Structures are given as C-alpha cells and as structure tokens.
Amino acid sequence: MIELAVRGRRVLTGEGLRPAAILVEDGLIAAVARPEEVPAGVPVREAGDLAVLPALVDAHVHVNEPGRTEWEGFSTATDAAAAGGVGTIVDMPLNCSPVTTSRAALETKLSAVAGKLAVDAAFWGGLVPGNLGELKGLAAGGVAGVKAFLTHSGLDEFPNVSRADLEAAMPVLAELDLPLIVHAELDPPGAPGGEPRRYASYLASRPPEMERRAIRLLIELCRATRCRTHVVHLSDADSLPDVERAKAEGLPFTVETCPHYLTFSAAEIPDGATAFKCAPPIRSAENRERLWAGLARGTIDFVVSDHSPCLPELKKLESGDFLNAWGGVAGLQFTLPALWSGAKRRGFELEDVARWAAEKTSAFLGLSQKGVLEKGRDADVLIFDDAALFDVEAAGVRHRHKTTPYLGRRLLGAVEALYLRGLPAFERERPAAGRRGRMLLRRAGGWAARG
Q1: How far apart are CA 258 and CA 229, in angstroms?
Q2: What CATH number has the domain bearing residue 163?
Q3: How far apart are CA 246 and CA 324, in angstroms?
Q4: CB 42 within 8 A of CB 344
Q5: Given this model, what pLDDT does residue 429 score?
Q6: Lower CB density within 10 Å: C or N end of the chain?
Q7: Residue 411: its pLDDT value, please?
Q8: Would you say residue 204 lies in a domain?
Q9: How many domains does the chain have?
C-alpha cells in the first residue's frame, strides 16, 4: 500500500526536473509517477514549485563521539545534518576516544550511537602504524573503508602513516575491496612564523606542495596495488592535472573537495577569524575558481562537508591565534546552501549539485539505496526552496557549538523538509521530527541497517 506521496512541479528524476510524484511504500520509492497518478486516499506532501531532490550523502563528518562528545556528538550532528538536507553521514575515525582503529573500538562507537540518530550514519575505520592486523576485523565490523593521514592528524592517538605502512596495508585493503581515504599532505608543516593573528601566517605554514607530494605518492601506490584510493578535502588546484592523468590511466583514484574551499578565499579571511582555519587551508580566489572547473570536468568527484567542530576555546576565538587554534570548519548544516550559492552564481543547475553531493557520494560508497530518486531506493526525499535567501545567524545553527565561518553570510537555498525512508526527519519551523536514523554497516555484497 502506498503510504505517502511527495508531489511537486520540479522533482529531480532521470529526465531532469519535471512534474512528478514520489510514491512511498515500506520506506522505499515504489514509483516516480505522474502527478495525477497518486492513488486516492494517499497522504500527499505538496512541494509546489519547490525543488524535490534526493537527500544528500555526506561521506566526511567528524562527530567526535564517544569520548569527545562535548565537541559535537551524534544527536546534535545528525540534527544539523537533517536541517541541511543530509540524509546519510559517514563518521570519521578520529577525534572520538577511542579512535576507531580496531574492531573493539568500532563496537564501542556503535554502542554509543544507539538511539541518537536523526539521519542514517555509516562509519570509517582508521589506518595507523601498527594496526595492520585490525583491518580485517574492521571490515568484518562493517566500516565503509579506512582513513589515514600522511602528516600529523592533530591527535597523538591517531598518528600518521609512512610509505611503508601504506605499502603493507593497501594490498590488504584491495583484497577486502575497501577504499583507502587519505588526508593528503606529506611532510610536516613549515615552522609557524609571522603575526599569529594573520591568516597569511598560517597559510604559509602549509604550502600547496604538501598536497602535491602526497597525491603523487598515492597515485604511485594506487598504480602498484590497485587499491581504491581517495583523496579527502582537496584544496590545491595545481594537483588536478596529476589526478586527471591518474583517472585517464584507469586507476581507481578519486577526489573530493568541500564547500569552504569553493566558497571562501584567503584574501577575505579577517585577522583573528580562526573559524576559517582548516587543513589543508583555504587558498586564493583564483585557486577556488580552478577547483570549480575541476568539479565541472569531473576531475573532482564529489563535495562533502568535512564538518570538524571543536570546543570554542580550542579555536582561540579571543586571541585570534591562527597558529595555535584547532583546525577544522564546522559546516555540516550549510553544505547544500553554500554549494548551491556558488553553483548558481557560476551557471550550474540543481541537477549538478545533486550529482556532486548525493548521487556520486552514494556511488563511491556503494550505497545503492541512496542518492537518486528512483524506484526501489530508500525514500530519502528533500524539499528545497532554491530561491530563498537567508543570513546565517547563531540562533539557527544546530551544531553543538555556533562557531562556523558561515556566520553572517547570506546563502541561497533553504531546506523546507527532509524525509528519511518516507518519514519526516526535518520540517522547517516545526519541532524536531524524532530519531529515525539507522546505523549502516558494510557487508559483502551490500549494506545492512541496524537500529
């Protein structure tokens, strides 16, 4: 029996935006029908002229639970995700305690998650020196893949790996068919210098050559091992030719970037505005435009938030000390409007945004139930007012803490509602819809849901 229809004049289907109705049965899309084909008596959510899109899939979120829940936590993180139109997140293996580098630590995390999810969540494992023997256990536990750093992660309990570590681990991951995702900065940052309140001082300490050297190493090892290799949060546009050559060669090599690299530029970051600090750093406006071009060409595969919050005091907001502030942008709630704001300005369409932030992330993860509005997939449906302008204010931020570089910025596009498997997960200006999220665990041949 059809339980719900989401109907509108601009529904994103395989034929583009057109009048349609999404018919929901048992949490799945039973059909993408013509508007007049909604069966009599079925409850209808009318979207009118608002866009009806697939819920976003964000494959790069630092939730920090258990152990550092005061930084964020699954309850607030998934509330923010739902408000931002994100139906699925994938949680990173560090900043929590214990870090997710063993099967036992993964089980500890899964226990901490129960009952806290407003949206679905999957989980990355971690690769660190000495945990090669844990990779099969992490795979059996259901991780989406494993994350490694090539430079210090910021946390001593999640040390960076060496070339020798990668050479040992990548054949194992290839056999397990798990992707390796990598923070691609090689060698330690330069010695901090200059006035600590100036963003330029921090930018100079992490030159783009750190990314280039790391990416060239990863391409070399990907070629040798055929391990699926993915670069997280690319910020250096000069690395794009190397990525293009790797793809042309047929290597299983992919790249993501983030809204903050596509939105901000180094020249506009005020002195002391440490909410903008992240690694790799936000670079020039010219570099930003070349990232957009790489996204348009498909060299950059998709866009994710890299939501990485912390306690406000760790951001050194009072002193404005870029050199000692924690690096990470909190932006999970604003991925969609930030991305759409920049895309619209550059002549892209909603179809492009949905491809970059839903369809291609789902395909990368192998989440065949997500990312597209078509029969048989999860009814994760987003109603989006793509013409609405709004100013980001602290009162509207649903992250645990309000520190974000988007504060005070005018963005285009507001999430009106989010449905998760046909059930309301978010309604603008209404009470929270409840905890409908599930834990997603990777299994041989697909994914399984828990909770």
Answers
A1: 18
A2: 3.20.20.140
A3: 36
A4: no
A5: 75
A6: N
A7: 98
A8: yes
A9: 1
Q: Report the pLDDT value the prediction gives residue 194, as an integer from 0 to 100.
A: 85
Q: Are 144 and 123 in contact (CB under 8 A)?
A: yes
409 part of a folded domain: no
CA separation, residue 315 to residues 273, 287, 333, 450 (Å) = 9, 25, 19, 35
The Cα 229–Cα 221 span in angstroms is 9
Residues in the chain: 451
Residue 404 near residue 263 (C-beta atoms within 8 A): no
The whole-angstrom separation of Cα 422 and Cα 27 is: 5
Q: Are strands 56-61 and 44-54 parallel, antiparallel or unpaired?
A: unpaired
Q: Where are any strands of DSSP class E within 392-438?
A: 410-420, 423-427
Write down the pLDDT at residue 306: 98
E runs forming strands in 124-252: 125-126, 146-149, 180-183, 229-231
Kindly report the backbone phi and psi dihedral angles of residue 290, in degrees, each rounded to the nearest multiple of 5, phi listed first. Answer: -75, -30
Is 137 a domain residue?
Answer: yes
420: tokens are 């998760």
Q: Would you tell me how many other CB atoms lie within 10 Å of the CB of residue 408?
A: 10
Q: Which residues are CB-contacts of 190 (< 8 A; sequence separation ≥ 6)?
A: 204, 205, 206, 207
25: in domain: no
At 66, list the tokens: 């258990």
SS3 content of the chain, % helix, strand, coil (to 5): 30, 25, 45
Long-range CB contacts for residues 107-114, cutoff 8 Å, separation at least 24 = 107/141, 108/66, 109/65, 109/66, 110/439, 110/450, 112/65, 112/66, 112/74, 113/65, 113/74, 113/439, 113/451, 114/439, 114/451
Helix ranges, 142-207 (H): 163-176, 199-205
Residue 433 has a pLDDT of: 64
Cross-strand bridge partners of residue 255: 231
Q: Tell me, what's the pLDDT at 451?
A: 80
Residue 348: domain span: 55-365
How many other C-beta atoms can be found within 10 angstroms of the C-beta atom of residue 270?
10
pLDDT at 385: 98
Tell me the two tokens of residue 94: 């560090």
Give the burial class of 250: count Cβ atoms within 10 A of its Cβ; 0-12 exposed, 13-18 middle, 19 or more buried: exposed
Averaged over successive runs of 10 residues, the pLDDT of the chain (451 residues) comes to 97 97 98 97 98 98 97 97 98 97 98 96 98 98 98 95 98 98 88 87 95 98 98 98 98 98 98 98 98 98 98 96 96 98 98 98 98 98 98 96 97 97 90 80 91 80
Question: DSSP class of residue 407?
Answer: T
